[in-house]
Hints:
The structure holds two protein chains of two kinds.
Chain A lengths: L1 H25 L2 H28 L16 E6 L5 H17 L5 H21 L4
Helix pairs in contact in A: 1-2, 3-4
Chain B lengths: L1 E5 L12 E4 L13 H6 L3 H29 L10 H37 L7 H20 L27 H30 L12 H32 L13 H35 L6 H15 L15 H10 L1 H15 L8 H23 L2 H7 L3 H31 L5 H27 L16 H30 L38 H6 L9 H9 L6
Antiparallel strand pairs in B: 1-2
Helix pairs in contact in B: 2-3, 2-4, 2-15, 3-4, 3-5, 3-6, 3-7, 3-13, 4-5, 5-6, 6-7, 6-8, 7-8, 7-11, 7-13, 8-10, 11-13, 11-14, 13-14, 14-15
Amino acid sequence: xxxxxxxxxxxxxxxxxxxxxxxxxxxxxxxxxxxxxxxxxxxxxxxxxxxxxxxxxxxxxxxxxxxxxxxxxxxxxxxxxxxxxxxxxxxxxxxxxxxxxxxxxxxxxxxxxxxxxxxxxxxxxxxxxx
Amino acid sequence: xxxxxxxxxxxxxxxxxxxxxxxxxxxxxxxxxxxxxxxxxxxxxxxxxxxxxxxxxxxxxxxxxxxxxxxxxxxxxxxxxxxxxxxxxxxxxxxxxxxxxxxxxxxxxxxxxxxxxxxxxxxxxxxxxxxxxxxxxxxxxxxxxxxxxxxxxxxxxxxxxxxxxxxxxxxxxxxxxxxxxxxxxxxxxxxxxxxxxxxxxxxxxxxxxxxxxxxxxxxxxxxxxxxxxxxxxxxxxxxxxxxxxxxxxxxxxxxxxxxxxxxxxxxxxxxxxxxxxxxxxxxxxxxxxxxxxxxxxxxxxxxxxxxxxxxxxxxxxxxxxxxxxxxxxxxxxxxxxxxxxxxxxxxxxxxxxxxxxxxxxxxxxxxxxxxxxxxxxxxxxxxxxxxxxxxxxxxxxxxxxxxxxxxxxxxxxxxxxxxxxxxxxxxxxxxxxxxxxxxxxxxxxxxxxxxxxxxxxxxxxxxxxxxxxxxxxxxxxxxxxxxxxxxxxxxxxxxxxxxxxxxxxxxxxxxxxxxxxxxxxxxxxxxxxxxxxxxxxxxxxxxxxxxxxxxxxxxxxxxxxxxxxxxxxxxxxxxxxx
Lengths: 130, 578
């Protein structure tokens, strides 16, 4: 995970330098804040990855000489299908319609979003299909 | 839920099978819903990627029809095809559909969703349900955007950039503006979720041996695009929420009267907007970098140079936002001009490497290759005029004229359309297991190539003559009409070429020519699996020892071009490296 960490830390350092130069040449606060935020967006996860890289060492995907056989075992669990992203998406749709057309849309929106959140949580615990 | 497992026992030498164990069916094939329910419930990255591509292509055709109406209106100085109000709505929606709902989602929602997990040897995206949610937010955002045409007062009419104070409630009353804002908030969240998913998939789900510097350049570009999305889209989404508050909740964030600043909107918007141009461009650079080596029968020239050039372009693109604001007189000209000009350096490296990849290769001019060469020509012209516009004196002279329109369209048409179609023709056999007609593809290419130049070159000239953008009529005594007429003819030539693509898809659907797993003798991992790929993508994987694992596996007799880390290791051990 070293390359990944350095990649993100590089993002942070670059925007830290650009942000400092920008501030001291323009004293413009809006752009400086965005550059500072971008700097943090790189530094925070980058440092976290570097911390874990030092504890874990190289993973199979970080090693030039790793073989497919060495990766034997469970990769991860993936849902085969799920209706809940669709339900949640419809809830989000109703929410924005409430802002554009009329507040009454918020009632079906809240219903759909709560149903989806309960559904996806139960599905994750159960480990089954729809 | 399905566990994806690589068993300890290997049955095919270096290519052990991957089996999927379904918790419910205990090892049998994936039993999911079928038909429309399958589409509604699928969390498979291939189905979601395909849905993204189909939706974005439909919106591309809709926005293209809008462009034809705009061009017809400008054919004569006092065109009466649409009213001025309708013209404003059409150019706003044309830009919004093309930029927010086609070019980006086709690449990072469609192609990347489908191809990236295959290229890194992953069974799916890291967060499949989040991936499905991204698509539903994108689809509903697109529907919301189109709903604007159905409300009283019409769709948004303040341009795709939504400049304040034009976009406030006083100057743009009605639901059209609100719908535009809400549509972009939905699609903004969709893009952010996709960005998270892409980065997590590339960081955590690579196959053993697939080191970062063995990843295909397309995947590298999608990683950098994912980071750019995470930098840019939250800024847009928050700016839109502020704009909505100004319109309805009495805030004055972008209003001078209330102590706010309209320039703040421009700063926020372009902090998103300029990286957005590269969010739209980098995936397409990646496509070109995949296609050129395959049809040149060579590995990518300067792999690491390509990766670092992509990073440099992305980094610089985030520091140049105010070059769109030179004429406000409120930005630091030297800073933004210098950074804008610097982007030409990594872009030049990319051009050099693309030419180096083709140099002395065994070139075969198939349809994807032709579209890539078309991209090189189109993007070069758009890029050169971009360097001109990065110089404030030229920008002051040409700002808000058709010169900028021509530059912008040459850059984005060059990338999203030429390179996008290269990707479509290149990966279509993998997605559907059947070929598109090469003959029809070449007709498509040549008509589009000719139409492209006929449409946009006159716009440079008419821009230099002073014609402003976003006008529905113009004086008849300034000599602008002939350039507009030529441009309109070009637009219709492009439209014919797009009709040929539809015909090609129809022929492929009705009279399929089977493609096989690797019809192009391509290099990267996605061509190792079947066409179309099975559920969870791979039944077995080849050893990954370079950037070209499929080529290495299929051509054991060929001299090996090994990855950089591998090369160093072999050199240290004294082994010969070809």
